[in-house]
């Protein structure tokens, strides 16, 4: 099963490299033809990149970190976009939205997990799959953003098959606070 996962991930990275599909946050993606907007890394702060793209002559920026496996291949990509204004949803204040891109062949019914330091903080369903992988796009509450800012590390937890151990993709939170505050 792992060899299928890795082969699919390599194909996904190849599709990313040639711009075969848009993988930007929905609010940041160009709608015409499914092409990705021009993206430029404006700054790297710790282990996070501030990436900006021009959409309809407007620059929109987000944070990004790509988690690599031991072979140096992309395993998970996390993007965070701060909302222009916080939104109150129920008892929570939403400050940002995240987008996780994981490889195809992820066991979707298990949902994706996010653990900050040693605390399980988020379980979220996958929203869609495209040729380059599957997306989970959870809102980030004020509480979750605070945990990301105060944490040292995070892990994205993905199931590959029922009854099999989950994969944990470790992410550094070094620089998250400063990068988030620049958005």
Give the helix/strand layout.
Blueprint: H1 2-17, E1 39-45, E2 48-55, E3 58-68, E4 74-89, E5 92-102, E6 112-116, E7 119-124, E8 128-130, E9 133-136, E10 139-141, H2 142-150, E11 153-158, E12 167-172, H3 176-182
Antiparallel strand pairs: 1-2, 2-3, 3-4, 4-5, 5-9, 5-10, 6-7, 6-11, 8-9, 11-12
How would you describe this structure in keywords?
3 helices, 17% helix, 12 strands, eight-stranded antiparallel beta sheet, single chain, four-stranded antiparallel beta sheet, globular, 183 residues, alpha+beta
Number of strands: 12
Order of helices and strands: HEEEEEEEEEEHEEH
Number of helices: 3
Distance between the termini: 39 Å
Average of the residue pLDDT scores: 81
User: Ranges with pLDDT <50 over ≥5 residues?
Assistant: 1-35
- How does the major sheet shape up? 8 strands, antiparallel
Overall outline: globular
Counting helices, strands and paired strands, the structural category is: alpha+beta
What is the radius of gyration? Answer: 16 Å
Q: Give helix % range.
A: 10-25%
Bin the strand percentage. over 45%
Provide a concise account of the structure shown.
This protein is an alpha+beta fold. The protein has helices at 2-17, 142-150, 176-182, and strands spanning 39-45, 48-55, 58-68, 74-89, 92-102, 112-116, 119-124, 128-130, 133-136, 139-141, 153-158, 167-172. The protein has three helices and twelve strands.
